[in-house]
Amino acid sequence: MDIVCKECESKFKIPDEKVPKSQLFTLSCPKCKNKISIDTRLDVSSSFEEKPQPSATAETVIKKTIIDEVDSGAYDASEKPFDFLEEGSKTALLCEPDSTVRGKIRSAMENLGYNVTEPASDRDALKQMRFHVFDMVVLSEVFSSTDPDENNVMKYLERLSMTIRRKIFVVLVTSRFRTTDNMAAFNKSVNIVVNTKNIDEIEKIIKSGLSDNAVFYRVFKDALVKTGKV
Fold first, then answer.
1. Considering the entire predicted model, what is its pTM?
2. Which of 45, 181, 202, 216 has its CA 20 to 30 A from that of 135?
3. Contacting residues for 41 by C-beta, under 8 A, at least 6 apart
């Protein structure tokens, strides 16, 4: 089996007779010690990250198993997004592949008082969300995916219980929908939509969206307090 490390791009081989059959397992890159996940249940010859141009059927299977793989992973303190946060600190997960756009969004979020972390891939994002409920998630619809409708971070958010999901303000960055398109936001199960053409105004857009969201949930939260559920 030929293996390529995603982090340092080192290439090495494992004798086929030493590869566990029909199992999900991990190994460390001999050069940089990066953890590489390999799933022989799919009868493929490489890890998730390194599979070249899979068929449509195989691609669907792989994407569906990434969330399950992360959910079933062992505890690893290095995957925690923050080492220390002061009480009352606001946190945000920024999932944007374009470095220029990401820089503008990060600046806006920091101006709004958020501690920001930027995962390198959808797998990294899912690992961080295992250990921390972020106050905000800003997600590009094409983050680690060429198909906006097969976004693993979005799928993970959709699987969360409403008790947890309503604590997270989700901003979808897209080129398909107009900024603050409420119907598109409802359809994609996010709090607000921001078109890439309006990235320079994203701080004002998010600030307005947060204000509207606070008003929307004020009655609900007051009811929880009165009934002793908070």
1. 0.64
2. 181
3. 22, 23, 24
